[in-house]
């Protein structure tokens, strides 16, 4: 997977300065163009993080409302899509935090039992993701796919790095159970900020958000 | 598991439900309408308060302690800077408001009072904008007051006694006031 694949997610798509300026001024046509350009990328991120189509659709709306309300804060130090991604990720995390009173986020045993008759070797990643607890799944996606560091994920959650690390460890453990694979070796374990990750400047902006 | 990052990235993008922009556009229109109504409400409030509180108006005029700009371009830069500060504070406030659903009555009353003061200032600023020979020093003072009020509002919303919407729905929710979000 290389930069092209990242572009396929849509966040790396460039946004012309003229459209950005017009959107800042409240131009509805420019706002529509931005929405249509990034809606799939934002929706995919949200859907992977919250794993509920209806909730993801609502968060998609809220994320763009947030983004347009704060668009003057975008300083252009990174591609606009990465800034928008940070807005959406924060929205999703806020939602997940709000659900913590009502959801059992860290109950891997119960979740594993949900698919007892499933041949885990045939369980594809998509289905494995669907049975991960919400917060570990969100952290897994932000870390492995979006390239955020533990420090950045912790900042978005208002928590410490150890929180992010523990959530990721839970996600790894659960995936290993579901997919029937062994412990990844330190040498070959996937790391964030692969070539598909945004440039450091984008990370900095994401952290500032 | 070793190729987890790659495998996850290879998952396909997902399509959002149709009609998303239409929904969003309606919500943007609604928000714009609320802002317009708030401006009108602020105007009416100012008109009423002018009748009742004329002696307080000198407080909003430039004072000796305010730095007096020497040239017009420099004054404009100061106003622009204050406007930026004001916008940043508005955004911070919007974020705090979205995260805050319930708090106690004293804080709610204080915030409402500050919000009314901001509305009064907004009307004065909008009047100033229509004056061809607008007094830059007066604009500077008004914007400085606005920044101070917004700072107080942000502090009020960030007060440690606040509870979040979901966390505040416990037994003490009946003693708290629900704010408009």
From TrEMBL, chain A:
<feature type="domain" description="RNA polymerase sigma-70 region 2">
    <location>
        <begin position="34"/>
        <end position="101"/>
    </location>
</feature>
<comment type="similarity">
    <text>Belongs to the sigma-70 factor family. ECF subfamily.</text>
</comment>
<dbReference type="Pfam" id="PF04542">
    <property type="entry name" value="Sigma70_r2"/>
</dbReference>
<keyword id="KW-0805">Transcription regulation</keyword>
<protein>
    <submittedName>
        <fullName>Sigma-70 family RNA polymerase sigma factor</fullName>
    </submittedName>
</protein>
<dbReference type="InterPro" id="IPR007627">
    <property type="entry name" value="RNA_pol_sigma70_r2"/>
</dbReference>
<keyword id="KW-0804">Transcription</keyword>
<dbReference type="Pfam" id="PF08281">
    <property type="entry name" value="Sigma70_r4_2"/>
</dbReference>
<dbReference type="InterPro" id="IPR013325">
    <property type="entry name" value="RNA_pol_sigma_r2"/>
</dbReference>
<feature type="domain" description="RNA polymerase sigma factor 70 region 4 type 2">
    <location>
        <begin position="124"/>
        <end position="175"/>
    </location>
</feature>
<dbReference type="GO" id="GO:0006352">
    <property type="term" value="P:DNA-templated transcription initiation"/>
</dbReference>
<dbReference type="InterPro" id="IPR014284">
    <property type="entry name" value="RNA_pol_sigma-70_dom"/>
</dbReference>
<dbReference type="GO" id="GO:0003677">
    <property type="term" value="F:DNA binding"/>
</dbReference>
<dbReference type="GO" id="GO:0016987">
    <property type="term" value="F:sigma factor activity"/>
</dbReference>
<dbReference type="InterPro" id="IPR039425">
    <property type="entry name" value="RNA_pol_sigma-70-like"/>
</dbReference>
<dbReference type="InterPro" id="IPR036388">
    <property type="entry name" value="WH-like_DNA-bd_sf"/>
</dbReference>
<keyword id="KW-0731">Sigma factor</keyword>
<feature type="compositionally biased region" description="Low complexity">
    <location>
        <begin position="184"/>
        <end position="194"/>
    </location>
</feature>
<dbReference type="InterPro" id="IPR013249">
    <property type="entry name" value="RNA_pol_sigma70_r4_t2"/>
</dbReference>
<dbReference type="InterPro" id="IPR013324">
    <property type="entry name" value="RNA_pol_sigma_r3/r4-like"/>
</dbReference>
<feature type="region of interest" description="Disordered">
    <location>
        <begin position="182"/>
        <end position="209"/>
    </location>
</feature>
TrEMBL record, chain B:
<keyword id="KW-0812">Transmembrane</keyword>
<keyword id="KW-0472">Membrane</keyword>
<protein>
    <submittedName>
        <fullName>Uncharacterized protein</fullName>
    </submittedName>
</protein>
<keyword id="KW-1133">Transmembrane helix</keyword>
<feature type="transmembrane region" description="Helical">
    <location>
        <begin position="40"/>
        <end position="60"/>
    </location>
</feature>
């Amino acid at each position: 997977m290389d930069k092209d694949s990242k572009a396929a997610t849509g966040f790396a798509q460039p946004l012309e300065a003229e459209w950005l300026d017009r959107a800042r001024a409240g131009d509805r046509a420019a706002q529509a163009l931005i929405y249509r350009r990034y809606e799939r990328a934002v929706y995919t991120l949200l859907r992977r993080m919250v794993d509920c189509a209806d909730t993801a659709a609502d968060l998609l709306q809220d994320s763009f409302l947030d983004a347009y309300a704060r668009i003057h804060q975008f300083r252009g130090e990174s591609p606009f899509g990465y800034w928008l991604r940070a807005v959406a990720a924060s929205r999703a995390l806020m939602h997940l935090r709000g659900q913590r009173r009502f959801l059992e986020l860290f109950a891997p045993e119960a979740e594993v039992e949900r698919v007892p008759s499933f041949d885990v070797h045939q369980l594809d990643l998509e289905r494995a993701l669907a049975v991960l607890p919400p917060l570990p799944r969100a952290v897994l996606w932000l870390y492995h796919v979006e390239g955020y560091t533990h420090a950045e994920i912790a900042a978005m959650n208002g928590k410490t790095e150890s929180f992010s690390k523990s959530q990721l460890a839970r996600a790894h453990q659960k995936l290993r159970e579901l997919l029937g694979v062994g412990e990844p070796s330190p040498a070959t374990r996937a790391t964030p900020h692969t070539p598909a990750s945004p440039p450091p400047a984008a990370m900095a902006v994401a952290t500032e958000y | 598991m070793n190729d987890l990052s790659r495998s996850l990235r290879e998952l396909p993008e997902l399509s959002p439900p149709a009609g998303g922009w239409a929904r969003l556009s309606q919500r943007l229109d609604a928000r714009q309408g609320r802002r317009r109504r708030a401006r009108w409400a602020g105007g009416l409030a100012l008109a009423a308060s002018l009748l009742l509180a004329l002696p307080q108006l000198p407080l909003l005029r430039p004072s000796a302690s305010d730095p007096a700009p020497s040239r017009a371009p420099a004054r404009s830069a100061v106003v622009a800077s204050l406007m930026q500060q004001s916008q940043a504070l508005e955004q911070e406030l919007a974020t705090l408001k979205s995260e805050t659903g319930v708090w106690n009555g004293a804080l709610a009353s204080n915030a409402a009072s500050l919000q009314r003061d901001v509305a009064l200032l907004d009307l004065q600023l909008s009047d100033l904008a229509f004056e061809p020979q607008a007094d830059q020093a007066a604009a500077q003072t008004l914007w400085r007051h606005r920044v101070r009020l917004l700072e107080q509002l942000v502090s009020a919303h960030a007060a440690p006694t606040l509870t979040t919407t979901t966390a505040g729905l416990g037994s003490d929710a009946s003693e708290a006031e629900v704010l408009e979000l």
